[in-house]
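Example pasted here:
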Amino acid sequence: FIDFVAALANPVAAILTGMIFTALVHSSATTTGIVIVLAGQGMLTLETAIAVALGANVGTCATAGLAAIGKPREAVRAALVHVLFNVAGVLIWVAFIPQLAALVRYVSPAGDVPRQVANAHTIFNVANTLVFIGFTTQIARLVEWIVPDSPITADEPLKPLYLDTALLSTPAVAMENARRELGRMGSYVADMLDRALPAVLGNSRGALHALEAMDKPVDRLHQAIIAYLGRVSLNRLSEDQAQTLMQLVAMSNDLEHVGDRIATDLTTSTRKRLDEHAPIRPEAARRITAYHADVAKALRQAVQAVMEEDAALAAEVRGMKREVTVLSRDIARERFRHVPDRVDGALMAYVREVEIVEILDGIFKIARRIARGEIETEAEPEPDATPLVAAAR
């Protein structure tokens, strides 16, 4: 290996050599140490030594990858971040190896080659950190897109993933984990709302039963989140932390309430319609579908606003009131116009259509309330505000 490395001249070949050797020995420090020794004996030029050291940074990703095998998705994501950081950093620097060598010669002109190799390695890592630190959010989203959460079905319990009791003594971190758990809960409830539309407009009692079953995991996760936040509230909280805690408690309650509106109110109304043999008219179904789309959009954006602490997005949800209200009024006018023509089953279908719209309207109001909570949390607290104590409604 030493003779082979000493004969390297092409920087790409040197990078690949450093990468492969490091992956085999599971130690970038070993590779870098060998490179420094060879450079000190004059067997490697500074440029070649830097290239091998860059390859070692990529090769060490193999260790992280092996360590993540069989681990939770968060561990896999952490390993992937390590890979992306090192690979992207090397790709950036591979074209600037001569310039990096010139820089370290300028920084340490009196130093020997081993010291210059060490300095180059330090500059490489520090510079990469400074470049990527401004893109942590984008990198996190990319990694979450590459390694998404496991899909959740009604048959799987919605078990907590982030409610780590070891973090209870650190309220800020614990509440951030609770926020992430609420993101999972909100996504699941939004999926429930998406599935509700075909179940409510259709004639399948099995679909209604599946919709009801989806609410049980929501209730369990709601209880776990409330209990966790209750334990967090036992700490001495700052004013901002207390306000955030109450926002998270309120959001958990609201999402649980949405689940109940879907699994209880919508399914009950639909069962009554099926018992009454009252199919919904195509025109009414079209209008309800459009209204449902706006409500579902508002719910997802409200949850996203809280997850990302985005007051602007929350304000956008609040601003949807006008267009949703106009659509609701159009549906009401259309229903009223057709009432005189309705008899027997048609009249009962009209009653159920009214119920569906009213239930969806209630869900929209909950979405706006969730968004309002984010806006109020982001606002400057009043000077005389006092800390709040978490309590489930």
DSSP finds 17 helices and no strands in the chain.
